[in-house]
Design goal:
Elements: E1 2-9, E2 12-19, E3 24-32, E4 35-44, H1 49-59, E5 68-72, E6 75-82, H2 86-92, E7 97-98, H3 110-116, E8 127-128, H4 129-140, H5 144-149, E9 153-159, E10 164-170, H6 173-183, E11 193-197, H7 203-212, E12 216-219, H8 225-234, E13 237-243, E14 246-251, E15 256-257
Parallel strand pairs: 3-6, 4-7, 8-15, 11-12, 12-13
Antiparallel strand pairs: 1-2, 3-4, 5-6, 9-10, 9-11, 13-14
């Protein structure tokens, strides 16, 4: 969307209209016999909301086997989840407001992740380091929103064979990943796939990769200590500072073949 802004440089001042990233709340409500139960509120960039919610449910370990998911006819920022498993979900539900800056708000600890997830499988051979380092540039080619506003993160999924599977943008890096996972939910687990994110590697990024069965994560920024610990615990190859022909490997380096393009 366009907003009037003032640009100040030294003693000069100019007015213009700038495009800014849109951020709005998205609420998911669980339908139960006793009435709707709030499951979560996500601060996101509108668009691909169904994929976002599906990915979030996967990441939180809340996606039921049977369900319907639909938008409220009177409020596009509210969605309803109906499932025969509503009692279990309602018992474990706690309202989480996930900001666009921190996806860990609605997540559990590493111990909780260990209790409900398994290390991703990997059947492909080692991947060329130069190819992995080039992926952020390939992601950037799929980020029109970022180029227009400078305010959106991106996430892309690549097959180990080299093909790009999908790419999404959002004001929150973790939302972009959830949109990606939600769009590919029918193909879970995402064995032999690489996740690329235009951000640092925090715990929530690795957590989402683990729950989706993704074995390799590449980010443009640094990794946090908890992200590294989690990647090491699950055998996820975690790479940061990917740019040019260089990258820093924090965990599971055996999936990377150095010196190959």
């Amino acid at each position: 969307m366009g907003l009037p802004v003032q640009l100040i440089s030294g003693a000069t001042r100019a007015e213009r209209v700038d495009r800014v990233a849109v951020e709005e709340p998205l609420e998911l409500r669980l339908s139960t016999p006793g009435g709707p139960v709030p499951l979560g509120v996500l601060m996101r960039t509108p668009g691909d909301d169904r994929a976002l919610l599906l990915g979030w449910l996967v990441s939180e370990g809340l996606l039921p086997d049977e369900f319907t998911l639909h938008v409220d006819p009177e409020n596009g920022n509210v969605w309803h989840l109906m499932t025969p498993d509503a009692t279990r979900l309602a018992a474990g539900a706690r309202l989480a407001v996930s900001s666009s800056a921190c996806g860990v708000c609605g997540s559990g600890s590493v111990e909780r992740l260990v209790a409900r997830a398994s290390p991703p499988s990997w059947t492909a051979g080692p991947l060329p380091a130069a190819w992995l380092a080039s992926l952020p540039d390939r992601l950037g080619e799929q980020q029109p929103g970022f180029h227009a506003t400078g305010g959106l993160h991106g996430a892309a999924l690549f097959h180990a064979g080299g093909a790009r599977v999908a790419a999404f943008e959002d004001v929150g890096r973790h939302n972009a990943v959830d949109k990606l996972i939600g769009a590919c939910v029918a193909a879970l687990p995402l064995t032999d796939h690489v996740l690329v994110v235009s951000s640092r590697a925090g715990f929530e990024i690795v957590q989402k990769a683990v729950t989706a069965g993704i074995g390799v994560v590449v980010t443009v920024g640094a990794a946090t200590s908890l992200a590294v610990d989690t990647a090491a615990a699950f055998g996820v190859t975690l790479c940061g500072f990917a740019r040019g022909d260089r990258l820093t490997v924090y965990a599971a380096p055996q999936r990377i073949a150095a010196g190959e393009g």
